[in-house]
Amino acid sequence: MAHQQTAKKEIVGGTEETTSGVQRLVALERARRLLYPVVAVNNARTKYLFDNRHGTGQSTLDGIIRSTGILLAGKNIVACGYGWVGKGVATRAKGMGARVIVTEVDPIKAIEAKMDGFEVMPMLDAAALGDIFITCTGQTCIIRKEHFLKMKDGVILANAGHFDVEIDTKSLYSISQGKPARINANTERFDVVNGKKKKKLLSKGRVVNLVAAEGHPPEVMALSFANQLLSILYIARNYDRMDVKVHSVPEQIDQDVGSYALDSMGIKIDQMTVEQERYQHSS
Ligand SMILES: NC(=O)c1ccc[n+]([C@@H]2O[C@H](COP(=O)([O-])OP(=O)(O)OC[C@H]3O[C@@H](n4cnc5c(N)ncnc54)[C@H](O)[C@@H]3O)[C@@H](O)[C@H]2O)c1
């Protein structure tokens, strides 16, 4: 409690970078336990459309390839979750010649995946088909015992989402013989008792793009960090007028970050004419 009071006095606001972090802060707000205003940087379009999708999409496959040297073409890749991270992973895997299967719990995301050209099915069915499994949900125990037991020999398990809870490593240990064998710095082989089928777990179930690769390319992080910086400046100027809740990144900041990024790429775009502006706002 004393710690909370000190935090309340000394911290005037915060920013949050990622999906899971924003979810926790919204939960704190709902429980009336948030102590200061927070800007949800993750929810800016110039963050999630590029960082979560393109950055994580690319660096996740990079981490898997670095750890295993596997050819993605012709493999069955299961993307668990079709949010921004899942979309990035699935699209890139498809582009590299893989057959991509998506699992979801949200019917709308599931239709989106289907109409984007992916197969959609429950995890238990996908478990039997996949060669590579990539969790992208921010949830816990997405791949668990019943799934491990249905998988083929030699499958690769990687997480691109949240902590090392998306793949239920505890149950993987519980159904495996002896200690996992270390194949290389980021790959362990588990010998599952049932049929002695091998599973390769990457990065101990931690985010594979950060552990086994270099994370996102700088162009992508520049967009996220520009949002961070401008949001921090916004808080510094406005905190005494901000409600204690999770705020969106102001639209002007999002637009400015987009414009700065285009400038840096030397790309020019059109502007609405006065007539178009008027037409858009006419009743
Ligand atoms: N590795 C990285 O560098 C990196 C970068 C950005 C975000 N993230 C993390 O990745 C996770 C996903 O982020 P996002 O922006 O895509 O979030 P998102 O909310 O857009 O997508 C998550 C998706 O997972 C789905 N889902 C939830 N439970 C599921 C289940 N049991 N089975 C299948 N699908 C399920 C949801 O319906 C949703 O569509 C978050 O934890 C986020 O913090 C990681």
Task: Give an overview in words.
- It contains twelve helices and eleven strands.
- With about 280 residues, the chain is α/β, with parallel strands linked by helices.
- It has an eight-stranded mixed beta sheet, sandwiched between helices. Strands 1-2-11 form a three-stranded parallel beta sheet, with helices on both faces.
- Strand 1, helix 2 and strand 2 form a beta-alpha-beta unit.
- Helix 3 packs across helix 4.
- The chain is globular and about 65 Å long.
- The N and C termini lie far apart (about 55 Å).
- The mean pLDDT is about 95.
- The site of nicotinamide-adenine-dinucleotide (NAD) has 30 residues, from helix 2, helix 3, helix 4 and helix 9.
Q: Mean pLDDT, rounded to whole units?
A: 96
Q: Tally the helices.
A: 12
What gross morphology would you assign? globular
Helix content: 40-55%
Q: How large a portion of the residues is in β-strands, by DSSP E?
A: 15-25%
Largest sheet: 8 strands, mixed
Biggest sheet, spatial arrangement of strands: 5-4-3-6-7-10-9-8
Sequence of secondary-structure elements: HEHEHEHEHEHEHEHEEEHHEHH
Q: Span from first to last CA? A: 53 Å
Label the structural class.
alpha/beta
**What is the CA-atom radius of gyration, in angstroms?**
22 Å
| Number of extended strands | 11
Bound molecules: nicotinamide-adenine-dinucleotide
Stretches where pLDDT falls below 50 for ≥5 residues?
none
